Amino acid sequence: MKRTIILFSTLILTATIAIGNRYNGIIDIRNVVDDKLLVTVELPKVEKEEVEYHIPKIVPGTYSISDFGRFASDFHAFDMEGNSLKTEKLTVNQWLIKDARKLHKVSYMMEDTFDSDKDNFIFEPGGTSIDEGKNFVINTYGFFGYLDGMKDLPYTLNITHPENFYGGTSLVDVNDDNSVDTFEALNYFELADSPIMYAEPDTTTLVVGGAEILVQVYSPNKVMDSKFVMDNVSEILNAQKDYLGGTLPIKKYAFLICLMDYPSLSGKMGALEHSKSSLYTLPEVNPTLLVQSVRDIAAHEFFHIITPLSIHSEEIGDFDFINPKMSKHLWMYEGVTEYSAGHVQIKHGLMGMANYLNVLQEKIVSSRNFNDTLPFTKMSKFCLDEYKDEYDNVYQKGALIGMALDIKLRELSNGEYGIQELMRELSKYYGKDTSFKDDELFDKIVSLTYPEIGDFFETYVSGDEPLPYDKLFSTVGLSFTEKGTIQQLTMGNIGLGLDRDTRQFMIRSLDNVNEFGKAMGYMVGDRFINFNGETTTFESFQGIVENFRNNATVGDKIKVTVLRKVKGKEKLVKLKARAISVPVEVGLSIQVDPKATARQLALRKAWVGA
């Protein structure tokens, strides 16, 4: 009886929504047809003869063209009686609907992006997946659209799903039915900012800084679960809470993690940030190999609750999903976020000084693969077209700009004020409902800090001067040199290749093999099967090597199993040797200066707590 009442109430709610001045999106993930889902969107009242229905060309946080409309087919528009209205496809993402005063709803079939054979594949965390009976990744903008000029109206979703499925999201389900979820968003922007993942329940929650933190994991072979993830990120989440002042500007945050037991089209792993959630696609490997990657990625994505949630320009606050205008402040959106993700770890004792300096060193080296004299604001403004090949520098030089600004602020304030305090002040001044004008942010920051910060922005962010690393690091008692060496554990200095038939890594050359490789007894043609207890696959190999270099120590016994041809037959061969480190030349080096002055030591303490 209760179930009947609930379903009846849902029908009343749906009918009420349909005739109101809002959207009502409807899908049933129990009914998959040719790897597609039927999408129905009941629409608000239109007061003109023609109107366009839009599916996004680009979405916030991706900084690349996606054209989600190319995954839609069988587009139709209907009046209240179910009669068809004339439509015309204008572009890959836009449909013109005639006689729009009668318009009641549109419907179309939507294909997912994870296994699409279309060109211009979409990086999986920003895409969609329809894996019938197993898992659905619903980045909402990949299924639902809006009417041109009407994206500010409320948007409701009704999603019917198997009773044994759970929909993880930062949105709140207002429906008590076990097989129908009803989510309400303030507008299309909030809807697009709120991914949902459906699978059998594997969730863990934790309250941090007054916010409910949800971790949901889909692991097709049950290799990793949500408790493991929470156990490994809770420490950093609490550190971030303290870093941000003790409380968080959200009530709920969702980490949605989809593990893949097949190669992704992008060949990458990572996440896409949202204001109150982040969605991850990672290879399904031994979870211990993913720990540091998950911690680093989670730290970065979680900091996006500050920017763009609480600090954003008009280009973000009123995002145009068809003809986007880019902000010139990627140095803050992505750069400061990336910087903070590492800074919080050293400042709260989760990372040692040596490791942190290696992180900064690697970012400087990586940044020099890009144009170091290109003004960062210019690159940001035109990152979709003219400078799209420079975009990845936001995670390298963008983070280093954040570091440089932090050190400069500490220097000017005698250690009392840094980028943490600046971001808190900007959050209070603007907040989630107020956008800043793109050309006014630098002036606002200067008004909150020091005139010298204006010179910093003009010279190094909107200007073409490379960052003065030697001067910056000297301020906090570090020495910076352009050339140096570091000790690194070695795999043997072997030449590797990929066997395309078996997708196994194999030894192509031993021309430069070192003492470890000789002691191990490698032979050309050896295919890696197991390295130190971990099964090596195309997806896991890089993580296994990184785990070895980061966590093994000199003298550890390293065991390797290879598949080797012996007298024409393939045979498993077990190899072993003691780990050794070798000097590796690097393009630059950052070291603690043993001759640092008392002031330099004090500023370093204020900067990183060490």
Task: List the SSEs and their pairings.
Blueprint: H1 2-19, E1 23-28, E2 36-42, E3 51-54, E4 72-79, E5 84-85, E6 87-91, E7 94-97, E8 103-111, E9 129-131, E10 135-138, E11 146-147, E12 155-160, E13 166-168, E14 180-185, H2 188-192, E15 196-199, E16 203-208, E17 211-218, H3 226-243, E18 252-260, E19 270-273, E20 277-283, H4 291-302, H5 314-317, H6 330-347, H7 353-367, H8 376-381, H9 397-412, H10 419-429, H11 441-448, H12 451-461, H13 469-475, E21 478-481, E22 484-489, E23 495-499, E24 504-509, H14 515-520, E25 527-531, E26 534-535, H15 541-551, E27 557-566, E28 569-578, E29 581-586, E30 589-592, H16 598-608
Helix percentage: 25-40%
Strand order of the largest sheet: 5-4-8-2-1-12-14
Number of separate strands: 30
CATH topology of the largest domain: Immunoglobulin-like
**Percentage of β-strand residues:** 25-35%
Oligomer: single chain
* Amino-to-carboxy terminus distance: 64 Å
The CATH C-level name of the largest domain is: Mainly Beta
Number of domains: 4
Please work out how many helical segments DSSP would assign: 16
- Provide mean pLDDT, rounded: 91
Structural class: alpha+beta
- Unreliable stretches, pLDDT < 50, 5 or more residues? 1-19
Largest sheet: 7 strands, mixed
What's the architecture of the largest domain in CATH terms? Answer: Sandwich
Task: State the shape.
Answer: globular
Radius of gyration, taken over Cα atoms and rounded to an integer in Å? 26 Å
